[in-house]
Amino acid sequence: MAPERADTVLNTDRYDRRLYGEVYRQAERLREVEKELMEKVPTADVLLRDVWAGLYKARPEVLEEVPPSLRVNQAIMKEVLGLPKVEDLRQTTRFDEWGSALGAVSLAPELARLIPEEAKEAFRYEQEASEFLRQAANLQMAAEAAQQAGQRQAAQQMMQRAQQLRQKGQNLIAQAERAASAAVRKINPDRVRVVAGRAAEKAQESLESVKAFSWGTSPGQPHLLKNSREKFELAQRMAVDYRLREIARMAGRIIRIALHKRKTRKRQEPAELVGITLGSSLARVLPSELCYLGHPLLKKDFLRRFTEGKLLQYELRSKESEGRGPIVCCLDSSGSMEGVKEIWSKAVMLALFQVAVRERRAFACIHFGNKEELKVFEFPEPGKASPVEVAEAALFFFGGGTDFEAPLGRAVELMGKSAYKKGDIVFITDGLCAVSEKFITRFQRVKQEKEFSVYSVVVDEDPGGVLPFSDRVALFNSAKGDDREALEVVFGR
């Protein structure tokens, strides 16, 4: 029988192949990469699939016996698996089919460029050998049928022809072996490790950047996208969109600072006693429970209930948990903000979004330019928002003039729609714009009714324009890059 073409150099199973097939059908970029590579390297589809499996599987292993056409793939995968930077990437991609797909489209094209011409010859010889062996097998079956029918002469001729075809097939397999050996000798292991390391690092950076668009629904919950496919699509977009990549990179740092400041502030807030509950907080355990520690037998019961979180303790609630109004981020999208200032302001916006998710508050982003330029992105339940939608909000930009009244007026409307008071408006601008006394009077009246606050950050400009409507104002010098004061005003409130 003619051998079937092998489709892997790893210990993949039916489940791995089925899962990859599902991802392949849904990921247009994966199919595009395969098509591009197959035009130059006939075994690129196997390489792409094996890189995916190497990133996805818990314990990927390279097979010892593979056909000549895959010897170079085998040599490459032996160098790639176990590489420190690839192992770092695997910490993120293991059992994540879409994260593994992202890694595959990053690594496979770089590795495919290392495959020498001799590997293509090995593939061609093997394909020709397979065809001869297939024909020989068919002739052998026909000869056996002729023999049974009493057609001995015809059977003998067909057997001779089948033997000739088998010999040609074996000769071609020998040529494929020689070509494969020559190809493997041309593989530079150090070069493979360098290329794979760089590609893995790039893929890891993309996955890390996506975390700026990832959120849970409660403090302490890990950064995870609800849909891994969105992570793949977003990471692919970051690969070609410099602004989005830089916004996400800067947002990572600001998000960490923001969440730390909010967590620290929350610990310092006074709380009121609202009842009795079960838990394992020794600081809030009822005195009657502590009495158990003085009795040898009851102490064991106390420890058991402590480990199970079933001790009677006081239930405390801070005023923060009673519900607060929305967070509205007003971003100056005038032409003068383009560059570092735009990147920084949108990174702050993403951090504010993360705060809104964790504090279960509505969120809105208002982009403003001149009087006619106003774009609002509303997220009534930020925790349920699509990361792609949030990315759209981060990328929007007008590039025109500057007017303060329109965005502030829209922010007031959003505050009025909320059932809760004590919302926050964060206003970021590099402009100097006058606001009429009539508008300020109306604005301050609604501000008192809804009890919201306005925190402004002025970038590289005099703060005079924002003082009439702001509770606190910070200056940020984009050239120096020291944003500690600005972040304290925005997130330390």
The coarse silhouette is elongated
Helix content: 55-70%
Alpha-carbon distance between the termini? 76 Å
SS content category: alpha/beta
User: What Rg do the Cα atoms give?
Assistant: 32 Å
CATH topology of the largest domain: Rossmann fold
- Counted up, domains total 4
In spatial order, strands of the major sheet run 5-4-3-6-7-8
What does the model show?
The chain has 493 residues and is of the alpha/beta class. The protein has four domains: 121 residues, no CATH class; 68 residues; 47 residues, no CATH class; 170 residues, Rossmann fold (3-Layer(aba) Sandwich), CATH 3.40.50.410. The chain is built from 18 helices and eight strands. The strands form two sheets. A six-stranded mixed sheet has the order 5-4-3-6-7-8, with helices on both faces. Strands 1-2 form a two-stranded antiparallel sheet. Helix 10 packs across helix 11 and helix 16 packs parallel to helix 17. It is elongated and about 110 Å long. The termini are far apart. The N terminus is likely disordered.
Question: What topology emerges from the helices and strands here?
Answer:
Blueprint lengths: L13 H13 L1 H11 L5 H13 L14 H10 L3 H10 L3 H16 L4 H32 L3 H35 L2 H22 L17 H13 L1 H27 L2 E9 L7 H4 L5 H13 L2 E8 L8 E6 L7 H19 L4 E6 L5 E6 L7 H9 L9 H13 L6 E6 L7 H14 L2 E7 L12 E5 L7 H8 L2
Parallel strand pairs: 3-4, 3-6, 6-7, 7-8
Antiparallel strand pairs: 1-2, 4-5
Q: What is the gist of this entry?
A:
This protein is 57% helix and 11% strand.
